[in-house]
Amino acid sequence: AQSVTQLGSHVSVSEGALVLLRCNYSSSVPPYLFWYVQYPNQGLQLLLKYTTGATLVKGINGFEAEFKKSETSFHLTKPSAHMSDAAEYFCAVTGGYQKVTFGTGTKLQVIP
Amino acid sequence: NAGVTQTPKFQVLKTGQSMTLQCAQDMNHEYMSWYRQDPGMGLRLIHYSVGAGITDQGEVPNGYNVSRSTTEDFPLRLLSAAPSQTSVYFCASSFLTGTRNTEAFFGQGTRLTVV
């Protein structure tokens, strides 16, 4: 089976502070991992992905994530939050089942 | 390049009515899927397809039917709408590499209310 756990349904940070959104996964085979962002009343769009190779991956809008196999984690970070980062973020995994499993999402609030 | 197109964007149904949500993609993706999004529950997979003529159930298939007669189209049918089906529905498509999905492209969603 494959699954994703996102710790914290709501995260608040001050503008300019570090953003850290946590994601842990399980997969019976080497996974592909994704982070998506959803702005209000819109569909999801890809922030970044890990497939193979370099474990630190960089995405759009200054976000990055590190694949840690030993910790089964794929946490999303950004050094300095911007007001425009306020959105809901979803971690997702795909493994040996030809389908994608999403986490329950983390809503990021940025406080001015 | 339109990507994934979903129609309608909004719909209100009465309990017991049926309807079809349309989804079309123009990227020649093998894989297409339908999700529903409810507060606090993330995206839950309803049905998916790995190619024309092939469909399978996700984690919440009851009350929904799908078919895939072409690579481009993947309609979702609500057979007899119930208030529990009030939700936001997303269609997504992607390529497959073996048993793994590549990046998913999402439609803009359909906000369905069943009264």
Describe the structure concisely for a colleague.
Chain A is mainly β and 112 residues long. Chain A has strands at residues 3-7, 10-14, 19-26, 32-38, 44-50, 56-58, 64-68, 73-78, 87-94, 100-102, 106-111. Chain A contains no helices and 11 strands.
Written account of the structure:
The complex is a heterodimer of chains A (112) and B (115). With 112 residues, chain A is an all-beta fold. Chain A has strands spanning 3-7, 10-14, 19-26, 32-38, 44-50, 56-58, 64-68, 73-78, 87-94, 100-102, 106-111. Chain A is built from no helices and 11 strands. The radius of gyration of chain A is 13 Å and the shape is globular. The N and C termini of chain A lie far apart (41 Å). The model of chain A has no long low-confidence stretch (mean pLDDT 94). In chain B, strands 2, 4, 5, 6, 9, 12 and 13 form a 7-stranded mixed β-sheet that branches. Classes of the chains: A mainly beta (112), B mainly beta (115). The A-B interface holds A 6, 9, 29, 31-32, 34, 36, 41-46, 49, 51, 90, 92, 94-105 and B 4, 31, 33, 35, 40-45, 48, 50, 58, 90, 92, 94, 96, 99-104, 106-109.
Which structural traits does this protein have?
heterodimer, A: 112 residues, mainly beta, six-stranded mixed sheet, 11 strands, B: 115 residues, seven-stranded mixed sheet, four-stranded antiparallel sheet, 0% helix, 54% strand, globular
Query: What percent of residues of chain A adopt helix (DSSP H or I)?
Result: under 10%
Percentage beta strand of chain B: over 45%
Average pLDDT across residues of chain A? 94
Please mark out the parts of chain A with pLDDT under 50 across 5 or more consecutive residues, or reply none. Answer: none
Strand content of chain A: over 45%
Q: How would you characterize the largest beta sheet of chain B?
A: 7 strands, mixed
**Element order of chain B: H for helix, E for strand:** EEEEEEEEEEEEE
Q: Please, how many helices of chain B?
A: 0
What's the N-to-C terminus distance of chain B?
36 Å
What's the Cα radius of gyration of chain A? Answer: 13 Å
Sketch the topology of chain A as an H/E string, one letter per element: EEEEEEEEEEE
| Count of strand segments of chain B | 13
Derived structural class of chain A: mainly beta
Query: What pair of chains forms the biggest interface?
Result: A-B, 29 and 27 residues
Helical coverage of chain B, percent range: under 10%
Average per-residue pLDDT of chain B, rounded, comes to 94
Largest sheet of chain A: 6 strands, mixed
